[in-house]
Amino acid sequence: MTKTPARDTAPLAPTLRTAPGEPTRLGAHAVPGGMSFAVAAAPGARLSLVLLDPDDGSVVEELPFPEEYRVGNVHTMRVFGLAPERTHYGYRVRTDHDGSTVPPILLDPYAKALAGTGPWGHRPRYRSAVLAADFDWGDTPRPRIPTEDLVIYELHVRGFTRDSSSETVAPGTFAGLREKIPYLNRLGVNCVELLPVFEFDETDNTYTSPMTGAPLLNFWGYNTVSFFAPKAAYAVGSSAARELKEIVRALHNAGIEVILDVVFNHTAEGDHRGPTLSFRGLDNDAYYLLTPEGQYRNLTATGNTVNANHPLTRSFILDCLRYWASEFHIDGFRFDMAPILARDSTGELMDNPPLLEAIAHDPVLADCKLIAEATDATGLDQVGSFPSYKRWMEWNGRYRDALRRFLIGRSGAANDAAARLVGSPDLYPDRGPTASVNYIACHDGFTLADWASYDRPHNDDNGENGEDGIAVNDSWNCGAEGPSDDPTVLRLRRQQVRNALLLLLFSNGVPMLLAGDEFGRTQWGNNNAYGQDNAISWIDWDLAEQNRGLLRFVQRCLGFRRAHPVLRRRTPTSGETPEGWPYPPVSWHGRRPWEPDWSPESGLLAPLFHQQLPAGPSDTVFIAANARSAPTEIHPPSAPAGTHWHLFADTGAPDGSDAHAVGSEPLVDTSVPLRLTGHSTVALVAHPAERGHTP
Questions:
Q1: Is residue 246 located within the same domain as residue 268?
Q2: 460 labelled catalytic
Q3: For a surface tag, which of 95, 108, 336, 451 has the fewest beta carbons within 10 Å of its beta carbon?
Q4: Which residues cross the membrane (predicted)?
């Protein structure tokens, strides 16, 4: 191949031998003797394949797609003599309206890798590249964890190990995450949910730091540039795909599943002011929702909205998901602003969205967990009503809100919180508890420690005059805003965080922890840290030692959950007592057995969970949560015949006795009332009478 001077001019005369490509296999693929290219474009478009220098990205050759190679709206070409590892390329679309303007070189939507990305924080000069398919998975098994047994741990790849306190060899990378797998095993989670790892441009944030004037970065990555290519800056070497596969393989070997947070509701191209990277230049009408006047519908608050149910876009999304599930062995997907995927070309919701149905029933995706963030930027809330096709789970934001409101003592919150603890049967009467991904904190909002330390967001560092972020947080600072050395304030915060974690991990449904919450991570009140690539977003691993009592508490709660199937039900609970059972699956109590207080001012929740196991003894757990500042005394219901109550946890107790190791819970003296301090939770477990543990 003869290199020409770097330029973007009219097409060069082809010097390479070509032939028709493979129209049913979009993207670039190695074939005998060269490469095959195929790309779909709008009807009537005239396309060229632009070959680029792999060292500096300059144009080497531009080959028009011959009309006779086109099949329908798919332009194909086989180019002989190209080496896959040295093939960088793009597409150029020409129209009759170009005049003297040279159209931009577009990325291949199906590119499996992007070159020109540079190190983290440097503005990229993207070009499509070819990925070598040479990874050996060996005999690594996929965990295939039953949904009811999942414990999800949400983390940001860079933020998880970027801080020097992580003591990793490759901080802020896939390799850094790999170094932390032993920690994840010790903690007791079995699934990581990774914030976006598809290629994104972190330099596209338009805001600047009010402190330094320096540009802020788009740290979270919810601005996808390429949906098939892993984030190059998360790699230590030259192959992000290989390093991501290595971390998936290592996690699977450790029994941990991998869920990807995917963003199909909008792209990095933004509105008419944004860059033309790929989709806009190839087929704007197919990929985006447009008004009759041709303007971009902005249902995502990002500038554009993907036309997800257009047949072309729908095929693209399905191909993408299949690729990650098959090539990267990904175990599931969390879909950002998923209601966008249920809208038609006018932006209206569809009763039977073909994309969601196709994802649910796709045979390649049959083993994948599908999780919808069932809200979008229009204010639509489909929690409990998202089209499920008996497959989709949901981030349950109503769980978060109900538990927060109950724990800070809001009037009338107990009834709603009670429904959330038992798997939200009002929202999922047919799907059951495993449809609900329960969480109290996630990347979007306060960390759990900040929820107990701030009454309002402190987002001045974001450069938006403190007007961004979630406005209503249902938080309580426990008597002082932000850092405090007041022992009373610190004790309340300690108890509130433990209350939230215990109730989360004892609830029916799938619990999700935000990385670092298990040892008190703070963002100093920032509840929208998407632009903070610094200590605000990076996990401070020194806190794991400073707050080792909290970490031990969480480890023991996770161990307790694993040991008790009554907390991991698949089917909705009932207040009816099955034949032969001493108790119904769930019963409600108060200061006295069988006398729950559902008044608006009730600050006490006291459920008893019971399950007769097919073999062995029954499984019975009792919880009492006091959301009021005053202490209270309760009389627990009797333990099942042949058992006694043992104390697993008391969040009002000091470190070391706030939670006991599974199997070592001390006996409870039921001849006297059980005392709950203000803002505390107690958990009891029934063990056979012959156990000899004493208080």
A1: no
A2: no
A3: 95
A4: none
- Is residue 347 packed enough to be buried (19+ CB in 10 Å), middle (13-18) or exposed (0-12)? middle
- Asked if 553 and 657 count as a contact pair (C-beta separation under 8 A), the reply is no
- Report the distance separating Cα 639 and Cα 519, nearest Å: 33
Long-range pairs for 303-306 at CB < 8 Å and ≥24 separation? 303/266, 303/269, 303/270, 303/271, 303/273, 303/274, 304/266, 304/267, 304/269, 304/270, 304/271, 304/274, 305/265, 305/266, 305/340, 305/343, 305/347, 306/264, 306/265, 306/266, 306/267, 306/340, 306/341
Is 373 considered catalytic here?
A: yes
Catalytic residue among 201, 257, 331, 373: 373
The structure's pTM equals 0.95
Q: Is the pLDDT of residue 394 over 50?
A: yes
Q: Are 299 and 338 in contact (CB under 8 A)?
A: no
Question: Is 457 inside any structural domain?
Answer: no
> Please, what is the Cα angle at 127 between 124 and 131, to 5 degrees?
115
Domain presence at residue 530: no
Q: Which residues pair with 626 in a beta bridge?
A: 604, 680
pLDDT (mean) for 137-156: 96
Nearest in space to 436 (alpha carbons), one of 123, 139, 148, 688? 148
Instruction: Choose, from 336, 376, 401, 474, the residue flagged as catalytic.
Output: 336
Question: One-letter amino acid identity for 330?
Answer: I
- Please give the residue range of the domain that contains residue 580: 573-688
Amino acid, single-letter form, for residue 332: G
